[in-house]
Design the sequence.
């Protein structure tokens, strides 16, 4: 008898029939390859609980802020879109970078260019003001960031831990800045997906995202160090030169180094960017100023400002979480990023009040807490979540409506 032909639902391999669902996908457009829209829907469905939790926490924060602002006869829009650093970014979008006549004055060269460039570009092709565009960009990038935070957490520890990590990131004490005209959402989005790309060994994309993050905030140097060092470690382990890995490691610091070099040329001195930061009272002192401020607030001050106490608790909590991340043996790229970010934030001797905001992108520090909540019983975990969400909502409103300085 002639051999029986395999059915259409199977193909024959060395180990026998293989179901069609397990066949290797063909080239783009082939029947066996799912369309991009189907993959996107599947990804959004997978991340759905995390995004829903993120939106619930942040909408609660907006509700508390709106009620508080109404009670104090404040407008919600100016607080979110046109306050403090938001105005500096809007000024750059409108007029570019300007050197002050007096070299002792502060300069907008301290602010990195990607976010105001996006404000200007999007506002040029859409109706509305640049302030509105900046706020919409922040909210939009916060959702991209939430997806990236979930992607990192779920890749390392599963969907449940990724969901908890995303919700905890939403419920940070200063989480309200994620929906303000600030750069934290954009920077966290670029950071989260760069870290995910390193974990997935997509080195060129990781380096590109890191370079863009380096054009967003000064702390982009922490991400650049993490991606470059991870690429170097991968090359050493592989014991051969893989061009994609090497290119990703070289691209990572390009944005930060490029802007710092450009400011040096604009100012006319090799350390021009650091001279600009010094006028803002920001300079490296190895953490002496931070320790002095913490001691003053917790030991000597009779009535320390409540917001500065909150900032201090965030700094202490972040330092306490880092050894737990080491004990959990997180991937090298996460440990280097959070360690370098802590070093930059704590080691700067400048203004104290924005330190908690500077640590908003350090979401890998929350992984030990997310893992603990993912393994806990539902009732205690929900109590912790409710307490964190309510505390974040209150702290955000207090920071913007009662605290007299910038967030």
Sequence:
């Amino acid at each position: 008898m002639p051999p029986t032909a395999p059915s259409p639902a199977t193909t024959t391999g060395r180990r026998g029939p293989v179901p069609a669902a397990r066949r290797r996908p063909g080239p783009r457009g082939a029947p066996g390859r799912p369309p991009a829209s189907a993959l996107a829907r599947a990804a959004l469905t997978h991340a759905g609980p995390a995004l829903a939790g993120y939106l619930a926490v942040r909408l609660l924060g907006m509700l508390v802020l709106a009620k508080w602002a109404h009670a104090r006869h404040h407008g919600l829009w100016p607080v979110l879109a046109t306050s403090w650093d938001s105005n500096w970014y809007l000024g750059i979008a409108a007029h570019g970078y300007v050197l002050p006549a007096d070299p002792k004055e502060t300069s907008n060269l301290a602010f990195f260019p990607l976010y105001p460039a996006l404000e200007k570009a999007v506002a040029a092709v859409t109706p509305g003001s640049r302030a509105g565009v900046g706020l919409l960009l922040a909210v939009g990038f916060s959702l991209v960031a939430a997806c990236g935070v979930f992607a990192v957490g779920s890749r390392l520890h599963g969907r449940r831990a990724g969901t908890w990590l995303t919700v905890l990131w939403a419920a940070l004490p200063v989480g309200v800045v994620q929906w303000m005209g600030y750069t934290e959402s954009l920077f966290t989005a670029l950071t989260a997906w760069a870290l995910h790309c390193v974990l997935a060994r997509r080195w060129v994309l990781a380096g590109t995202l890191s370079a863009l993050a380096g054009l967003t905030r000064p702390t982009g140097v922490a991400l650049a160090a993490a991606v470059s060092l991870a690429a170097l470690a991968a090359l050493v382990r592989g014991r051969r030169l893989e061009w994609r890995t090497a290119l990703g490691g070289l691209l990572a610091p390009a944005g930060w180094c490029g802007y710092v070099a450009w400011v040096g040329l604009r100012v006319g001195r090799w350390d021009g960017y650091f001279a600009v930061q010094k006028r803002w009272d920001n300079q490296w002192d190895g953490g002496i100023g931070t320790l002095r401020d913490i001691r003053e607030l917790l030991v000597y001050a009779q009535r320390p400002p409540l917001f500065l106490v909150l900032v201090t608790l965030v700094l202490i909590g972040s330092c306490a979480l880092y050894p737990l991340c080491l004990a959990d043996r997180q991937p090298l790229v996460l440990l280097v990023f959070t360690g370098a970010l802590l070093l930059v934030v704590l080691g700067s001797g400048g203004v104290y009040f924005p330190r908690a905001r500077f640590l908003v992108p350090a979401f890998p520090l929350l992984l030990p807490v997310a893992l603990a909540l993912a393994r806990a019983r539902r009732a205690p975990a929900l109590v912790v979540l409710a307490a964190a969400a309510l505390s974040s909502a209150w702290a955000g409103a207090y920071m913007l409506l009662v605290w007299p300085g910038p967030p």
